[in-house]
What we know:
Layout: E1 2-12, H1 16-33, E2 37-47, E3 50-59, H2 62-69, E4 94-98
Antiparallel strand pairs: 1-3, 1-4, 2-3
Amino acid sequence: MIITRIWHGVTHAHHADEYLKYLEASGLADYKKTPGNLGVQVLRSIEGEVCHFWTVTRWDSYESIKHFAGDDYEKARYYPDDARYLLEFEANVVHCDTFDF
């Protein structure tokens, strides 16, 4: 079974490109180097003055997710410089069983 982990964050629209570069160097790099990660996508939507980001990662098991996120894997993982960009800090992520047809 594949598990999809979805995180959501919001920045000011004028930070959209800068935050994407930061995200690539921080969280996305950590996702990619974690054993059991099967892929990473970023979705971005600018709506007026704000920009929404979703990281969508695919994993081979919950144990692999724990190697990235820690034992409390339902909690969102944040980085020190996130406070420079994010307008809010959502506490949890969403995990979904994933089926390909």
